[in-house]
């Protein structure tokens, strides 16, 4: 099982190729489902949305049109460089990129209307801590939106994709949510594989 440093090294190494690699696993439908799950629409601009483990900024870019400010956090310097290039090329000026760990988000508590994590939880050293951190930075009544892998048995993901966990069952996700003091959760399907 990869440790946090190995995961970071992996993502630094694939940062320039990540947008191509991820297309085999998810596309724009993830953004649309995440926005719907957060109850966001362009008629109401959120003050702050947070993208945890933003990678190259794929989700952050999708959130930018729905918020005054998006804070995108990742611990991979390589991913943040590519994310910055992507934000510039898209002309997005309301996305702030920050280095930081999913276990200790560099944001004061109670700030965001919604906190997102797309395909990040299965890389977290401790998923419960990550969900707790996401809940900490959300405003009271805010939403936490996690899009991730359902439990599977493809051990090769640990080697090829630096996955720490082989997805999560609904019972595990519910336990993470309840353990973070969250209520009123919903589960749904997004992916194609």
Structure description:
With 193 residues, the protein is an alpha/beta fold. Helix content is 38%, strand content 19%. A five-stranded parallel β-sheet has the order 3-2-1-4-5. The longest helix is centred in the middle third of the chain and has 14 residues. The radius of gyration is 15 Å and the shape is globular.
The side-by-side strand order for the widest beta sheet comes to: 3-2-1-4-5
What is the overall pLDDT average? 89
Q: What is the total tally of β strands?
A: 5
Count the helices. How many?
Answer: 8
- Oligomeric state of this protein: single chain
Given helix and strand content, the structural type is alpha/beta
Distance between the termini: 22 Å
Strand content: 15-25%
Estimate the global geometry from the Cα principal axes: globular
Which residue ranges are poorly predicted, with pLDDT under 50 across at least 5 consecutive positions? none
| Helical fraction | 25-40%
Reading the helices and strands in chain order gives HHHEHEHEEHEHH
List the keywords:
38% helix; 5-stranded parallel sheet; alpha/beta; 193 residues
């Amino acid at each position: 099982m990869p440790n946090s440093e190995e995961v970071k090294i992996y993502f630094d190494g694939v940062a320039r190729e990540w947008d191509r690699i991820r297309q085999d696993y998810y596309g724009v439908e993830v953004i649309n489902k995440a926005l719907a799950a957060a109850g966001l629409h362009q008629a109401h601009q959120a003050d702050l949305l947070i993208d945890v483990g933003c990678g190259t900024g794929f989700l952050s870019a999708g959130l930018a049109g729905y918020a005054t400010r998006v804070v995108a956090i990742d611990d991979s310097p390589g991913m943040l460089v590519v994310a910055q290039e992507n934000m510039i090329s898209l002309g997005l000026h309301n996305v702030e990129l920050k280095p930081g760990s999913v276990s200790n988000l560099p944001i004061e508590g109670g700030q965001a209307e919604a906190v997102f994590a797309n395909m990040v939880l299965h890389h977290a050293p401790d998923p419960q801590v990550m969900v707790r951190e996401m809940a900490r930075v959300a405003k009271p009544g805010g939403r936490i939106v996690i899009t991730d892998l359902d439990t599977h048995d493809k051990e090769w993901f640990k080697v090829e994709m630096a996955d720490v966990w082989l997805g999560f069952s609904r019972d595990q996700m519910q336990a993470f949510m309840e353990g973070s003091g969250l209520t009123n959760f919903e589960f749904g399907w997004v992916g194609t594989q």
